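quick q for whoever's on today - can somebody do inverse folding on this one?? i tried earlier but teh output was garbage lol. tokens:
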């Protein structure tokens, strides 16, 4: 990581799925076969924890299960994740396939930047999709792009998975890491905000950097 925020970079090693699966706080999401999961995150307990609501599909109308996570938690899904909502505490969300943003992702009370009590990461083995016409997302956003597609961050589809070449507004606050290119220019109004706090207030499973700093007097 560079010390100057304007030139800061973020490098992560490939996702260790065995680690995240073994430390998963929602074991019902790691079945023997891959399955799409539709998850809404709700900040609860004064914004210190996250409640995960699972729905039957991407309309987010028919509730399946509800679970409240610990203050520091990992959500690992064997399959694709469709998600939206607010994160309370420190949460890492990991998918063995894609992560699809079907709505805004922020911290409790709409906070867009991490702090000592709030940080999040969305780590996809393959791609990140941004489907709404207007969307905001916070946290470490990581797409390993295991399928080696041209775009690791993709916005070329609407909420019905139809091809889309024009969208309105995109707001990303955090650190973005990808293997490949982005198809985000179809948002006519885009803001990419770096979050230096994520270097220090890391979600679970990610090392704090810098771990050691050496200072030499002359």
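ok took a stab at it. sequence:
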């Amino acid at each position: 990581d560079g010390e100057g925020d304007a030139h800061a970079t973020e490098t992560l090693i490939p996702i260790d799925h065995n680690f995240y699966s073994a430390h998963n706080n929602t074991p019902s999401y790691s079945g023997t076969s891959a399955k799409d999961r539709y998850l809404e995150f709700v900040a609860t307990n004064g914004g210190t924890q996250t409640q995960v609501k699972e729905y039957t599909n991407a309309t987010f109308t028919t509730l399946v299960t509800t679970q409240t996570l610990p203050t520091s938690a990992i959500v690992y899904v064997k399959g694709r994740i469709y998600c939206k909502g607010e994160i309370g505490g420190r949460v890492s969300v990991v998918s063995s396939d894609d992560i699809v943003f079907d709505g805004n992702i922020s911290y409790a009370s709409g906070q867009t930047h991490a702090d000592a009590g709030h940080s999040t990461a969305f780590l996809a083995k393959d791609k990140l999709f941004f489907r709404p016409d207007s969307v905001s997302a916070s946290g470490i956003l990581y797409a390993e792009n295991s399928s080696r597609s041209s775009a690791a961050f993709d916005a070329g589809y609407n909420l019905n998975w139809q091809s889309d070449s024009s969208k309105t507004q995109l707001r990303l606050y955090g650190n973005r890491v990808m293997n490949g290119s982005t198809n985000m220019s179809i948002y006519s109004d885009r803001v990419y905000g770096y979050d230096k706090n994520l270097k220090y207030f890391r979600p679970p499973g990610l090392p704090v950097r810098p771990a050691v700093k050496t200072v030499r007097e002359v």
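fwiw The two ends are 24 Å apart (CA to CA). also Confidence is low (pLDDT under 50) at residues 210-218. so keep that in mind when u check it
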